[in-house]
Sequence to fold (608 residues):
Amino acid sequence: MGFFIPPPKVYKPAAEVDLGPDSDEHYISPNVKAPRVAGFLVKMLAWVLETPVLGWIVLGVLKRDNLVYKLVSDAEIPEPPLFTATHTWQAIQEQSVRVTESRLSPAERVQEAVACVPAAAQAQLEPAAGFRRWTVRDFHRAYRSGQATPTMVARRFLAAVEECSGPDLNMGFFISCDPADVLRQAEDSTRRYQQGAPLSAMDGVLVAVKDELDCLPYPTSGGTRWLGSARRCAADAACVAQLRACGAVMAGKANMHELGAGTSGINPHHGATRNPYNVGRVSGGSSGGSAAAVCAGLCPVALGADGGGSVRMPAALCGVVGFKPTAGRLSNSGLLPLNWTVGMPGILAATVEDTLIAYAAIADQSKPSPLQPELNLPMLTRTRSMPSIRLAKYAKWFDDSSEDIRSLCGKALQMLRTHYGWESVDVTVPEIEEMRLAHYVTMGSECTASLAAKYLDSMDRSEVGWDVRIALSAYGSFSSRDYLSAQRLRCRQMYFHEKIFETADAIVTPMTGVTAYALQDDALSTGELDYINGAALVRYSIAGNFLGLPAITVPVGYDRGGLPVGLQFIGRPWSEATLLHLAYAMQEACGKKVLRKPKVHYDLLTKE
Fold:
C-alpha cells in the first residue's frame, strides 16, 4: 500500500483529442481496488474512517489506490471549470414530432401524448398469448368501459402491497403507504369516471413516488429514519403536483438506497428492495423501490430521481424503461437537494408509451423560451418511417460488460439495422473513468455541502446506516481543489460530447456492466460496500448526469440466469423526442421475447 502518490495525469487540450474510431486514447476500465465488505467489517471501516487522523490516512490511501489523485485532484487540466450541466436553447430538427403549446395544462399534454401513441390492437382486457404488462391506456380503457374502477384496482393494490411486504416475501418496495389516502384518491377518480369526466388518460392510474420527492401526506426521508422529522414536507413536488392534476393516484413512497448513496437498493432501515425476477438479487439503486414496483405490476408508472444512473440502472436490472430527460426539462422543486448539479427527477414505466405519457404530464413548461426549447412529443405512430439515424458506439466501452450483456446489446443494435436501416458509427469517447471519478467527487461534495450545516453536523451518526456513514466520510474528504478539478473535467467532457453529436443522433451503450447480483444476508442490517459491482452498474450512467444529457434505457432480453438486460441511448440536449423514438423502435424490434413474467408479479386489472 504505502503512501506514495503516483505522478498526476497531464491532459492535453480537449480540442487536440482524437474522437475517431482509430484514436490512440487509452480506455481505462474502472480501477476499483476495494474488496466487498458487509456486516461487522462495514462497522469497523466506518469507525476507522470517522476516527481523527487515522480516518484521513485511510481515506488518502483509498483515493490514491483508486486513482482519484492521479486523474482528478492533482491532474494538470488546461480547461476552465464548468460548474453546471445546464444547456441553453438549441434549434434541434427532431423528426416525426408533435409540438405542444406552452399554455397547455398537464392533463391536456397527456391527451396530446396519447394521440402520439399507436392505437391498441385490442380493447378487451383479455391477456394476449404470453405475458404482457398493463399500461396506462389499459387502465384508462377499463375504467371508461366499467370493466374495472380505480377503487377496485386500489383495493387490489393495497392487498398486494400487504402481501409482498410480509415476512414470506419481504420485497421492500415501499417505505410508506397510507391505505386511507390511496382509497380516498381512488374513490374521487371513480366518481369522475362515473360522471363521464375523467381528467385525463392518467386519471385513476397508480404512481409510486421515490422517497426523495415530496408527496403529501407523507414525510420525505430520503431513505433515512431521521430526515423526515428534521425537514418538514409542506407541499407536493412539482412533478407530483402535475400528476395529481391529471388525476393520477399517488400510491405511496417507494423505497430507496439511503440518501441515494449506493447502487444496490439495500436499506438497513426500511429493508432491501428485492428484484421481482429473482428475490435473491438486488433491484439496484437508488430508485430501486420505484423500479421494482413497476416490474411487479403494482403500478405502470413510478417517479424516481437520477443523480448517477439512479433511475436508469435499477430500471435495467428490473426489466422496465427508465428515462432521465435533459437537465432543466423537469422541475427540481420538491426534490431533496442531495446533489444540485447532477440530480433530477426521472420516470420508470412498464413501456415506452407509458414513459411518453408520464413525461408529457410532468415536463416543466414554466420557464421562458430562451432557457428551454419547445416541448416536442414523438409521434410513435411514425417511428418506423423515420429516415436514417446514426448511433455513435465506442467499442471498447460498449464491450466492457459481461458476455451476456455484450451479446444481447450487440444483437439489439443489429435488429435496429435490420428493421429500420439505422447505422452505428464508431467513435471514441475519451476519459470515461476520469469522468466517473469526477462525477463521484462532484456528487459527494454537493451531498455533503447540502446536508452538513443543517443536518449532519448536529445529528447522531448512529441514526445513519453503516454503509452510508462510510460514503459520507469519503464525501467529506473532498477539498475545494478536488471539486474544481472535477468541474474542469466536466468542461472537457461537454466538449467531447458536443463534437460527437455533430455527427451522431445518439450514443448507444449497454445500461449496466453486470446484471442484478446476489443479495447477501450479512448486508441486510448494515448495508454493504461492493465498489466493484457498483462501478460496473454505473459504468454507462455518468454522462447523463455529469453533462445533463437526456438518456433512456429499454429492456432487450435476459441473461442466462433469467435476469433482465437494458440498452441505453444518450442524446443531445433537449432531444427527448428522438430518444423516445429510438427506445420505442427497440421495444418493437425486440417484441414479446423481452416480456418474461417476473416471479413476483400482481395483475391488478383482471384479478377477481
In short: The chain has 20 helices and 17 strands. The mean pLDDT is 93. The two ends are 63 Å apart (CA to CA).
